[in-house]
UniProtKB/TrEMBL annotation:
<feature type="binding site">
    <location>
        <position position="182"/>
    </location>
    <ligand>
        <name>Cu cation Z2</name>
    </ligand>
</feature>
<comment type="function">
    <text>Nitrous-oxide reductase is part of a bacterial respiratory system which is activated under anaerobic conditions in the presence of nitrate or nitrous oxide.</text>
</comment>
<keyword id="KW-0574">Periplasm</keyword>
<dbReference type="GO" id="GO:0005509">
    <property type="term" value="F:calcium ion binding"/>
</dbReference>
<feature type="binding site">
    <location>
        <position position="620"/>
    </location>
    <ligand>
        <name>Cu cation A1</name>
    </ligand>
</feature>
<feature type="binding site">
    <location>
        <position position="380"/>
    </location>
    <ligand>
        <name>Cu cation Z1</name>
    </ligand>
</feature>
<feature type="domain" description="Cytochrome oxidase subunit II copper A binding">
    <location>
        <begin position="537"/>
        <end position="636"/>
    </location>
</feature>
<dbReference type="Pfam" id="PF18793">
    <property type="entry name" value="nos_propeller_2"/>
</dbReference>
<keyword id="KW-0106">Calcium</keyword>
<dbReference type="InterPro" id="IPR001505">
    <property type="entry name" value="Copper_CuA"/>
</dbReference>
<feature type="binding site">
    <location>
        <position position="134"/>
    </location>
    <ligand>
        <name>Cu cation Z3</name>
    </ligand>
</feature>
<feature type="binding site">
    <location>
        <position position="581"/>
    </location>
    <ligand>
        <name>Cu cation A1</name>
    </ligand>
</feature>
<keyword id="KW-0560">Oxidoreductase</keyword>
<dbReference type="InterPro" id="IPR011045">
    <property type="entry name" value="N2O_reductase_N"/>
</dbReference>
<feature type="binding site">
    <location>
        <position position="616"/>
    </location>
    <ligand>
        <name>Cu cation A1</name>
    </ligand>
</feature>
<dbReference type="InterPro" id="IPR041142">
    <property type="entry name" value="NOS_propeller_2"/>
</dbReference>
<dbReference type="GO" id="GO:0005507">
    <property type="term" value="F:copper ion binding"/>
</dbReference>
Amino acid sequence: MIDPNDKNLPKIDTEDPKATEHVKLSRRLFLGGSAALVGAVGTMGATMGSALLPSTAHASSDSKHTVGPGELDEYYGFWSGGHSGEVRILGLPSMRELMRIPVFNVDSATGWGITNESKAVLGENAPMNGDSHHPHMSMTDGQYDGKYIFINDKANTRVARIRGDIMKTDKITTVPNCQAIHGLRVQKVPHTKYVFANAEFRMPHPNNGLNMDDIEGYYTMFSAINAETMEVDWQVIVDGNLDNTDADYTGKYAFSTCYNAEGAVDLAGSMRLERDHLVVFNIARIEAAVKAGKFKNLGDSKVPVVDGRKGSDLTRYIPVPKNPHGINTAPGGKYAVANGKLSPTVTVLQLDKFDALFEDKIKPRDAVVAEVELGLGPLHTAFDGRGNAFTTLFIDSQVCKWDVEKAIRAYNGEKVDYILQKLDVHYQPGHNHTTMGETRDADGKYLVSLQKFSKDRFLKCGPLHAENDQLIDISGDEMKLIHDGPTYAEPHDCMIVHRSKVKTRKLYDRKDPTFAMTVEMAKKDGVTLETDNKIIREGNKVRVYMTSVAPSFGMNEFKVKQGDEVTVVITNLDQIEDVTHGFCMVNHGAQMEISPQQTASVTFMADQPGVHWYYCNWFCHALHMEMRGRMLVEPA
Ligand code: RUQ
Ligand code: CUA
Ligand code: CA
């Protein structure tokens, strides 16, 4: 356990008059008080390097949360895979990993990034890396509708869409005119027309390599992507940079945090001001401006760009302390909470004041109804639908449960303790999420806290550690830690959806658009995919069409010539749920999944004369090993 008298631990300044009881009592003693924290990113660094701490909390095993073998979970969790570039599906409360959805990465199990169908989604010369942060499901009337899941790629400025019925990525959009899409949310009401995407980094315009130093002229922007077409419908230039975003429950506003109101290009500069801001976007006014032609185009891009910098009619800037990070709308739709990060406070905004704000009847700070201290390093807030909020305290390594209405009363001078409980988490949480908590249906059953560090919680696997996703029971008055879940890099964020909202297919529809292009190609070749096993040659392009039924391919062997570009197209005729086949051409870098009733194709060069075996690489039958065939490449 931590010895508070240990001389090696940094001192906490309990004499600091500005520190509240909660900050003073902060159990993690390896950092200074709030005064030391503000502006002290160096200190945050020190935290990360802190000595291995013994764990203090162990899960209370409670059988009501146990999901036995063969039992199904109550919730789907959609986990961002961070710089793995993927999305993962977990079951809750078991925290079992159910599936991985490749998005901005290459996946050899499914052939994502290898098959022609996935390459068509990724686009030509697509970067094969990604940094996914924020998965969000489409909504209708503020409730999850199961249709799509959207996720950003900070690394390559992209937004992807995953289809909820087959859990595969079906569209990827590169957002023009900006760098690094970070914050992402959906319009909640009346339905998800737009996916809102924040570009984080300010850059010169035009960005032609002629100017690095005129940082005054840098800017970044907020983008609205049409959820159906996945085209960027419009962009808004802003002051400062953009971090996270959320939307309200009227459909009228979206709002984004900014940690760099200073417009700095270095660390110290971006911490100079005591307050940065929240930018509020008036969606109707922006749409009207675009419609009226009050926009410009940048570079080759056709996207209408409007100017939402300070003084614009389209936006309002609300000052909030200091380098804020998460912004989270409460399920009732009345409030949103901006999380202070370098300030130990959260800022509560009352969203029905935004109408008056845009009519200039009130000042920006009048939309703030509370700004209260919670502890060190508040990053994100989740809600239980019963008036309580749960905020991660990165530096304190805690989740703070607090009462929103009481916080407002305390801010107005009443002597009321708004903090209900602080629970140690292990260690340094970023996002946290409650079951259904980002919708009207918040049910307050579980909270997931996503920790950036696991330190001593798991067996060591070398210098690189797993992260730790903890499951917390919030159904009672007290938060109870019930599960530690190691995860691979890096679940920034997740989203927890009741299983009733998700309806997936058992088999592919033969008309599925994910392989429509391949069906089209077969049609041109006069091939019926469901019956034919045929080779079509067109110059040195060879298309090999075959079916598969466990445990055999429709073709045992085929012949091509050295120098041919070979496309193997496989249609899985099995109608049985879960009988997925694979296709792998040995030594040719070609491998893919073909699920029941799916068609998939892969193209490779036949440049080595000789016999080359292909085989099924998804275990499908007792004779799965025998599901194989030969390609003969005749020398040129
Ligand atoms: S951000 S740790 Cu990429 Cu969601 Cu907050
Ligand atoms: Cu088909 Cu294994
Ligand atoms: Ca700042």
